[in-house]
Amino acid sequence: MANVGQSGLKWEITPASNLVLAIQWDSQPNACSVLGGPVGWPGWIDPGVSMLIGQYEHTLDSKGRLTLPAEYSAELAAGVVLTRGMEDCLYLFPREEFERLGNRLREQSLTDSRTRKLRRWLFSQAHAAEPDRQRRIVVPQWLREAASIDDKVLIAGMDNYLELWNPENWRNQDQALRAELDDADFFASLNV
User: Fold this and answer.
1) In the CATH hierarchy, which fold is given to the domain comprising 55-179?
2) SS3 of 88, please?
């Protein structure tokens, strides 16, 4: 990796994929901005996009409020949307990201039953919130019940959104994933 001037960016060409990446690590751990694309390709990833990565375990207070990790405060300050996730977790999207998802779903045909089902799944149980000065948001009871969340919450970064888990369910999911990864070709079809 090479430093680029005084910018704090580090450039790297990844030989296997022939990609150029520029990574700028923020002062907070687990927060960075990434630029990248195939060598010679003019369409770069938006430099303003930050990755939501890492995992944290937090406790809900008596009012059902969750304190979001400080590392995510810039990405989540404009508001968040909580909704049901897959596999018994909750999804927490930055508001802008949830709006992008909504726009993509609006482009799909309403005659497609999968589109209607996904819209029902995501939007009917969605809850918009703005973090307070202490970075807290209320996790509604119906969403806590959907994910079997009592007082402990495991927050897992998924790049452009977060997953909120009952910590025991997360550990079970992680063990199942580890077992699947024994197959070296498990992710091969994704072409990443």
Assistant:
1) Chemotaxis protein chec (3.40.1550)
2) coil
| Alpha-helix residue ranges (DSSP H) falling in 43-191 | 73-76, 95-106, 113-123, 141-146, 167-180
Strands 55-59 and 80-84, how do they pair? Answer: unpaired
Asked if residue 69 lies in contact with residue 31, where contact means CB atoms within 8 angstroms, the answer is no
Structural domain boundaries in the chain = 2-38, 55-179
In whole angstroms, what is the distance from residue 115 CA to residue 61 CA?
36
Which of the residues in the chain have pLDDT under 70?
A: 1-49
How is residue 71 annotated by DSSP? G
Express each pLDDT in 14-46 by its tens digit.
444 434 344 444 444 444 444 444 444 444 444
- Hey, what are 65's tokens? 């409020």
Residues contacting 65, CB < 8 A, separation 6+: 136, 137, 138, 139
Q: pLDDT value at position 39?
A: 40
Q: What is the pLDDT of residue 182?
A: 79
The three-state secondary structure class of 2 is strand
Per-residue b/e over 73-106, b at no fewer than 16 CB within 10 Å?
eebbeebbbbbbbeebbbbbbbbebbeebbeeee
How much is the pLDDT for 187?
79
Output the pTM of the full model: 0.74
